[in-house]
Write a structure and sequence with these properties.
The structure is a single chain. The protein has 1 helix and 10 strands. By secondary structure, it is mainly β. The chain has one domain: Immunoglobulin-like (Sandwich). The strands form 2 sheets. Strands 2, 4, 5, 8, 9 and 10 form a 6-stranded mixed sheet that branches. Strand 8 and strand 9 form a beta hairpin.
Length: about 110
């Protein structure tokens, strides 16, 4: 499965220390079709910060899951360092578990 990082469209820059920024991800299958997530049982959004710290978070459906879109809202302490971050999503269905490709995003410093 592949991810499309939609956060660039809604929030052009993610900054260190941001709280309430929505991280929006669209999941596609290997043929680049949007993946229906409505039957998934669990999700895990795994971040690796630029300091190589792993953070596991739970995203939720943006709508009903049929559109393949998940969202996570950054909380206090999530974005604690600036630099290049990576993320991957693990998705469990009743009979299988899948992991998306690893994708990158940048967390910008503040002045």
């Amino acid at each position: 499965m592949n991810c499309t990082d939609d956060v660039e469209e809604t929030n052009p820059e993610i900054h260190m220390g941001d709280i309430g920024t929505e991280f929006i991800i669209t999941i596609h299958d290997e043929n680049d079709y949007i993946q229906d997530l409505s039957l998934a049982t669990t999700f895990e959004l795994i971040f690796i910060s630029s300091a190589n710290i792993i953070k596991s978070r739970i995203p939720h459906f943006y709508t009903d899951g049929k559109d393949g879109i998940l969202v996570y809202t950054f909380a206090n302490g999530d974005l604690d360092v600036h630099g290049l971050w990576h993320y991957q999503i693990k998705i469990a269905f009743p009979s299988s578990v899948w992991s998306t490709n690893v994708e990158d995003f940048k967390v910008y410093p503040n002045i």
